Amino acid sequence: MHVFDLRAEQEFNTDVHVERILGTIADGDVTAACWEPSQVSPYHCHPTATEIYLCLEGGGVMRTPTETVDIVPGAFVVHPPGELHEYENGDRRTLLFRVRYGPDRGTRTIARRGHPPWTPNAD
User: Fold this and answer.
1) Which residue in 26, 40, 44, 99 could disulfide with 114, CB within 3.0 to 4.6 Å?
2) CA-CA distance, 43 to 57, in Å (whole number)?
3) From the CB of residue 58, how many other CB atoms can be counted at a distance below 10 Å?
4) Total-model pTM
5) Tens-digit pLDDT profile for the chain (123 aa)?
6) DSSP calls for 62-90
7) What is residue 6's three-state secondary structure?
8) Which residue from 107, 110, 118 is spatially nearest to 43, judged by alpha carbons?
9) Is 53 exposed, middle or buried (0-12, 13-18, 19+ CB in 10 A)?
């Protein structure tokens, strides 16, 4: 059994959102994801991993190529393997619980809106 206190594990940074991996279990990991107002994730996917978010505090907007969904406390989002997605935080600090599981949890980034100039590489 693994037990975590997400509020005790939260860590915020005004320059970048913080994803603290709290534990690795089998083919997955569990994370406290902490967002300052207006921070934006890379537009990315995990080709062979499922990614799940549960909003505990705050909120924002989750985007995929076909949907935009408001994220509020209690919202639970599941991205199947390969689904492109981007999270944009709202005007308050946000604490998300994230789970990723699959044979390879690697990330493929497509774009980085709201970040310094960036270009994708072949990998």
Assistant:
1) 40
2) 22
3) 20
4) 0.84
5) 989 999 899 999 999 899 999 999 888 999 999 999 999 998 888 888 999 999 999 999 999 999 999 999 999 999 999 999 999 999 999 999 999 988 766 666 665 666 555 555 555
6) EE-SS-EEEE-TT-EEEE-TT--BEEEE-
7) helix
8) 110
9) buried
